[in-house]
Amino acid sequence: MICGKLYSRLAYASRLFAIIGLLGMAGVIHAHGGDDSESGDLRPVMDPLPADLAGVRVQLRRTLAPQLLVSNDTDRVLTIFDHDARPFLRIGHGEVQADLGAAAFHRTNTLMAPGAIAEDASEEARWRTVEPEPNWGWFDLRLRTDSIDVPETVRGHGKRAFIGAWSIPVQLGERRSAITGHFEFVPEPGGIPEARITDTGPLGESALVRAMNGSARTGLFLSYRGNQPLIVHGAADEPMLRFDSDGVAVNRHSPTWKEIAPAGAPRYQAGDGTDWARVSSQRSYGWIDPRAGFTGTVESADEASVLKRWTIPVTLGERASAIKGVTEWKPVEPLASAH
After folding, report:
1. What does the pLDDT read at residue 25?
2. Which residues pair with 80 in a beta bridge?
3. Per-domain residue ranges for the chain?
4. Among the listed residues 188, 179, 260, the one whose alpha carbon sits nearest the alpha carbon of residue 43
5. Residues 129-147 as b or e (16 or more Cβ within 10 Å = b)
6. pLDDT reported for residue 32
7. Nearest Cα to 89, choosing from 44, 145, 47, 131?
8. Is 63 in contact with 71 (CB distance < 8 Å)?
9. Which residues, 6 or more positions from 105, have their beta carbon under 8 angstroms from its beta carbon?
10. pLDDT at 63 over 80
11. DSSP letters of 94-145?
12. Per-residue confidence at 114, pLDDT binned at 50, 70, 90?
């Protein structure tokens, strides 16, 4: 029997991981399949959403395991089905409902659940509201790579390769659809791009600024303790984030925010000027920032080099300044094979 206490603990943990993912502050740990840690990484990749899911925001994050984050502000409920076509989540109409009798709900709530709850432990349907907002994150087991074997021919080739597909059936309103993707083998890199802060200008001791590395999308984390409002500008020099005594707010009209907004955050709205929406009651926030990232190719992967220098304009009170940084290539020594 699936007990209420277990549900309570798992639901809390799920929301905690979802919050971490939404802020973009969780360290990314690649999910390995089989024994591929010596020669590459196997990861799930999500396809573009079908037109039937217009208005729904879905992100695939690799935290401690592959996790789906969904935000549904449409006027229709999004239903998620398990591998036996039983619905176990309903996201929409301002809340999230879960079938507490479905083993799939509990097995996807935390990393520990699959080993503690049997796949066939489902009971009668018992739908309950588990979140008062239409946002949810879960560790769907169909995204796990543990049991997928990568052929030696693929490993030996040393190039990216697709290894099978995955699909999660869903229904938005009355229309059936699916969130789909594939598994991709990524060979062990010869190095990694690493961003770091070189100058915080007048912020000085009033702010802690760090580059967040470890994933394909580099981010920045800023914790502010100053007295004057601090504005972080976007790529078009538009006001994007505001740090003040009330916490952190985002400008919904920022075109940069349109490209980087995580699931569950205030949505971009076309328009000029500023339309501030609170994203944190604390004076700290982390966000993806392409200006610090690097997606190109490196000519000499075995040599350290400077890939780019970048600037993030800021306004402290009435004073214009900038956070400056550099993104460098760091060669990685191949892991020695165990014999």
Report:
1. 36
2. 89, 170
3. 4-186, 191-331
4. 188
5. ebbeebbbbbbbbbbbbee
6. 32
7. 131
8. no
9. 88, 89, 98, 99
10. no
11. TEEEEETT-HHHHHTTSTTHHHHS-TT---S--EEEEESSSEEEE--GGG--
12. low
Does the pLDDT value for residue 35 go beyond 70?
Answer: no
Separation of alpha carbons 62 and 271, rounded Å: 33
Angle in degrees, CA 42, 297, 330, rounded to 5: 75
Dist CA 212 CA 231 (whole Å) = 20
Span 143-168, mean pLDDT?
Answer: 84
- CA dist 13 and 7 (Å) reads 10
Per-residue pLDDT, 335: 53
Q: How does residue 116 score in pLDDT terms, banded at 50, 70 and 90?
A: low
Distances (CA, A) of 190 to 62, 84, 169, 261, 290: 21, 42, 37, 30, 22
Distances, alpha carbon 176 to alpha carbons 52, 73, 78, in Å: 8, 18, 10
**pLDDT for 158:** 66
- pLDDT mean over 236-257: 97
Structure tokens at 183: 């598994």
CB 36 within 8 A of CB 26: no
Residue 136 has pLDDT above 60, yes or no: yes
Q: Which two tokens stand for residue 179?
A: 């969130």
Q: What SS3 state is found at 292? A: helix
CA distance 331 to 324: 23
Tokens 């920032």: give the residue: 289
Supply the DSSP symbol for 59. E
Tell me how far apart the alpha carbons of residues 119 and 115 are, in angstroms, rounded to a whole number: 9
Whether 147 has a pLDDT exceeding 90, the answer reads no
